[in-house]
Amino acid sequence: MAALGITVALLVWMVSLLLISLWKQILSSWNLPPGPFPLPIVGNFFNLDLKNVPKSLNKLAERFGPVFTLHLGFRRVVVLHGYKAVKEVLLKYKNEFSGRGEIPAFQEYANKGVIFNNSHTWRDVRRFSLSILRDYGMGKQGNEERIQREARFLVEELRKTQGQPFDPTFLIGCAPCNVIADILFNRRFDYNDKTVHRLMRLFNEDFYLLSTPWLQLYNNLSGYLRFLPGSHRKLLKNVSEIKQYTLEKAKEHLQSVDFSCPRDVTDCLLAEMEKEKHSKEPVYTMENVAVTLADMFFAGTETTSTTLRYGLLILMKYPEIEEKLHEEIDRVIGPSRVPAIKDRLEMPYMDAVVHEIQRFINLVPSNLPHEATRDTMFRGYRIPKGTVVIPTLDSLLYDSQEFPEPDKFKPEHFLNENGKFKYSDYFKPFSAGKRVCVGEGLARMELFLLLSAILQHFNLKSLVDPTAIDLTPMAVGFGSVPPHYKLCVIPRSGL
Ligand code: HEM
């Protein structure tokens, strides 16, 4: 009798809990933007093609409009689609939606550093990182000189391939990696250095894994999937190894730092740590310094390197575009002077090609997830604090009004009828607002200078007929990952 009583009490208790949780769910979902009906536990995963989530979001926007809701596992997600909605969220509601949605694959970095920080320390670390990046970007050993120096090393290394086929992933990737390594750690790596190859492999593998279907599931259902075997374990290990590297660098720096004369970003972060050493709640702990460095190292290498690699593949498919670039470089820069930023003003075609590469490859289609920092009324909907907010970037970059035939690679998207560079406010591959990419200026400078330097010295040669080159990404998720390929670079005759 007593056992029956306990069982009934337990049942009543569980049913009450279930009803309370359902009630809470209904209450918090009340007045959310429209969206497809969610199933229990999995929510709207059946509405998504995990091989191409950004494409599924575009399709859902056709059905539900520019602001819609999805339930992905435990997460309530509001998606913004199109110029007006995305800009409104990023610029008009810049504080309300400036949180960072959780990315469980980077749980070790959560609430530290800049990118994955959704805590009160983010504002401070971001502001400080921006100011030191700015300081190291200006002046005599500024970013332009830094990139120009690396461009010379890159050209030298490309010459060593002697016209033979090679995989550009690590060779080309080494240039942006060295530029950011110089800013962060006051060092550059030899192009054959084992450590830099290991680090770049980790960055590259992470970017790919993050874009696979399994990680789309994991990042939303990590509560269920955490203990299962799968590629998320590899990713978690890689992320940890990268942080281990930056932690070691920070410790090494600590041995020799002179706070009155910082050598690099690491020293500046350590100086902040030193200032706070008697504080009860310091922002700059060794952990936080290591994650801040890891953020900038990973984000500063993989993004620019992938853009360059994708860009070269595109140019091989369109030799007539490459030809026009050679012509412009020869006319403005000539054969031997190293390209400079001032050349951009006289090189509208190169400027347009670099923009079109970034638009077309759509590197981070769905942006990084944001989060509502407080309950917010947006276009008549109530978006509760903690809701993940996705201001999609591909919906701007592939807008067919702004960029007619968006699926085609056309530098003319950024040129006016007189052949001058044409600005577009829809060009937002770095996002906008409070979370806008910290490395935008650096990345744009690198893309222009490094691509100009490569084409100044070499013709690109594909191993297959240019018309047979397939530009379809090999994975689309967090990022758009270019297909693997090899190419030859042939020194330009007479130069
Ligand atoms: C082609 C190159 C790059 C692209 C397309 C790119 C794109 C992006 C995007 C879309 C975001 C998310 C913005 C948001 O949440 O709204 C971001 C954030 C970030 N990027 Fe970049 N990025 C590039 C290069 C770089 C470089 C060179 C650095 C090096 C310093 C960098 C550092 C960061 C950091 C630290 C954040 C986090 C900002 C925050 O959460 O407050 N990125 N980037």
TrEMBL record:
It holds the Pfam family p450. The gene is LOC106000254. Belongs to the cytochrome P450 family. This is Cytochrome P450 2E1. Heme binds at C437. The keyword RNA-binding does not apply. SUPFAM superfamilies: Cytochrome P450. It catalyses: (4Z,7Z,10Z,13Z,16Z,19Z)-docosahexaenoate + reduced [NADPH--hemoprotein reductase] + O2 = 21-hydroxy-(4Z,7Z,10Z,13Z,16Z,19Z)-docosahexaenoate + oxidized [NADPH--hemoprotein reductase] + H2O + H(+); (5Z,8Z,11Z)-eicosatrienoate + reduced [NADPH--hemoprotein reductase] + O2 = 19-hydroxy-(5Z,8Z,11Z)-eicosatrienoate + oxidized [NADPH--hemoprotein reductase] + H2O + H(+); tetradecanoate + reduced [NADPH--hemoprotein reductase] + O2 = 13-hydroxytetradecanoate + oxidized [NADPH--hemoprotein reductase] + H2O + H(+); (5Z,8Z,11Z,14Z,17Z)-eicosapentaenoate + reduced [NADPH--hemoprotein reductase] + O2 = 19-hydroxy-(5Z,8Z,11Z,14Z,17Z)-eicosapentaenoate + oxidized [NADPH--hemoprotein reductase] + H2O + H(+). One of its GO terms (biological process) is response to bacterium. Interacts with chaperones HSP70 and HSP90; this interaction is required for initial targeting to mitochondria.
